[in-house]
Here is the input.
Amino acid sequence: MDIVCLDMEGVLVPEIWIAFSEESGIPELKKTTRDEPDYDKLMRWRLGILKEHGLGLKEIQDVISRIDPLPGAKEFLDALRAKAQVIIVSDTFTQFAMPLMEKLGYPTLFCNTLEVADNGEITGFNMRCEQSKLTTVRHLQAMGFDTIAAGDSYNDLAMIQASRKGFLFRSTEKIKQDYPDIPAFEEFDEFLNAILSELS
Here is the structure.
């Protein structure tokens, strides 16, 4: 039996940190896992910038409340979930993701959690497990499932390459050039058809 593992940001919803960067006027926060493969390093850098500017969870959640899924994402996800088991495997955090999950019809989400002080300052983060995306597909496979995985960033590559079939969706030209063996798609219709054709 197949389980489809999808990244969230950049695939189903806009990049949260880019949206927050634009609203807060802090251009440094536009950096994502498309730019920095080391997620731990990226998050610690982000938290340092938030502290420097006196920004916390509330300010980020205010921005997230105004973010909608990418056009066509919910329809894509609904069509895919009608044919396959789907898990969104994301390096985001529960405190960020839940408003977006509501807009996507509450799909299953595996993600991480933030450490937040009483004053709303984000003081740290707890990753669900080490190499969470790769670990997730490896454990699903150990339970007898085949995985099909898709994402757009460097931190998705391990789960994509470890799966029976993997795809890139709306990735960067650099990643697509560096990994020409991974089929890449830009539109939801083609992406959906490619996944459905791989279901066993």
Remarks:
- The chain has a mean pLDDT of 95.
- The domain at 2-13+69-112+128-198 is CATH 3.40.50.1000 (Rossmann fold).
